[in-house]
Amino acid sequence: MNKRLFSFVAGECGEWSIRSIQTIVGESLPTSKRLTIENGDFSGKCDWALRGVTSNERYVTKAEKTALVSKQEGLGRKASNYAALIPIRKTDAWWSLTQEERRDIFEEQSRHTDIGQKFLPNIARKLHHCRDLASVEPFDFITWFEYSSEDETMFDELVQSLREGIEWQYVEREIDIRLVKE
Amino acid sequence: MNKRLFSFVAGECGEWSIRSIQTIVGESLPTSKRLTIENGDFSGKCDWALRGVTSNERYVTKAEKTALVSKQEGLGRKASNYAALIPIRKTDAWWSLTQEERRDIFEEQSRHTDIGQKFLPNIARKLHHCRDLASVEPFDFITWFEYSSEDETMFDELVQSLREGIEWQYVEREIDIRLVKE
After folding, report:
1. Nearest to B87 by CA among B59, B128, B45, B54
2. pLDDT for the residue A182
3. Rounded to two decimals, what is the model's pTM?
4. Which of helix, strand or coil describes residue B59?
């Protein structure tokens, strides 16, 4: 199994309790109580399971990466009692663009990295890719965020800023799942 | 199953007869007689099977893409009685680079697309990605080439030019498999 593969499994068990599941655009996901993150594949009983692999950088420049690395903190911080799981699927039109066209929309027009870095180190994140798995997956990306409950307003501001950008015109399915560690 | 998934299956059957398997760098692959390309996964008996998904463009600019599209021809041409299957794995150092650093090595320093387009339309190609599958795969990319036996020297020139570039310093495993349609 690819060591970079992670499964986000919703059901009766898991250290994360699901506070809300909000459908932003497209088809919804069934409700569920708890969530666990497994390294590798998952084939047991659950309400739903989403999986993706962490991978190489796709858009950030060297300068942006250096800035991010100097400010960001990892997952698993004690103070991070809140989390968000946001799976997204982009349109065929997005995937038909060249790399430079996607980069232009992602950063020059929509300031994706620039917006994200403003909320560091409070909001930690990890991106997983699903589109190039051998199976058909319901989303292209799964992003996992961790932060303190005190920063929930800040997190709302972050996702709102991203959703207002041109990049989000290419998002055809998005679910915003909020969790608390219990 | 992802419709973009393809399996390259070596064994007793298949419309392509394997002429040679040359290890360019790294561990070799077992010898085999014939090869078939299946859309989707493969779990039957074989000498070896490699799989990968076609995906979105990673490096070409809009201008480069337009130039390629105007010159290239598809797979399956009657005159294409020869083929090559070249699986490649790149080093961790390559995957740690940012997109712009990889693009710089790929094109500005190594002229990968520029070299490839010189051999169009004679040599048709299709790229498959393996690195972000859920399973551990032996290669990062699988490229399938088709051309006429009359153009074998031209194909040798193409791969030789690419192997001389800086980009190939990041290639840690490469096998060059030549085939004929029978």
Report:
1. B128
2. 87
3. 0.94
4. coil
Closest listed residue to residue A158, CA positions, set A128, A125, A129: A125
Structure tokens at A176: 């915003």
> Average pLDDT, stretch A157-167?
97
**Which of A100, A104, A129 best probes binding to B when mutated, by most B CB atoms within 10 angstroms?**
A100
Mean pLDDT of A86-90: 98
Q: Is A14 left (phi over 0), alpha (psi -120 to 50) or beta?
A: left
DSSP label of B135: S
User: Which of B98, B101, B133 is nearest residue A134 as measured by Cβ atoms?
Assistant: B133
C-alpha closest to that of B97 among B136, B51, B59, B57 = B59
Count of CB atoms situated within 10 Å of the CB of B90: 22
What tokens does A142 get? 């799964």
Structure tokens that stand for B13 in this block = 């059957």
The Cβ of residue A2 has, within 10 Å, a number of other Cβ atoms equal to: 18
Contact A123, A154 (CB under 8 A): yes
Best of B39, B43, B53, B56 to substitute, by most chain A Cβ atoms within 10 angstroms, is B56
CA-nearest residue of chain A to B3? A136
Whether A101 sits inside 8 A of B62 (CB atoms) is yes
- Find which of B51, B91, B95, B100 to mutate to test the A interface (most A CBs within 10 Å of its CB): B100
Within 8 A of B135 by CB-CB distance, chain A residues are: 1-2, 134
* Residues in A lying within 8 Å of B, measured between beta carbons: 1-5, 41, 51, 53, 55-62, 65, 95-101, 103, 129, 131-137
Which of the 8 DSSP states describes residue A146? E
SS3 A148: coil
Collect all residues of chain B within an 8 Å Cβ-Cβ radius of residue A97.
56-57
ipTM here: 0.92
Q: Measure Cα distances from B1 to A30, A170, B4, B8 in Å.
A: 22, 24, 9, 16
- pLDDT above 70 covers a percentage of chain A that reads 100
Largest CA distance in chain B: 44
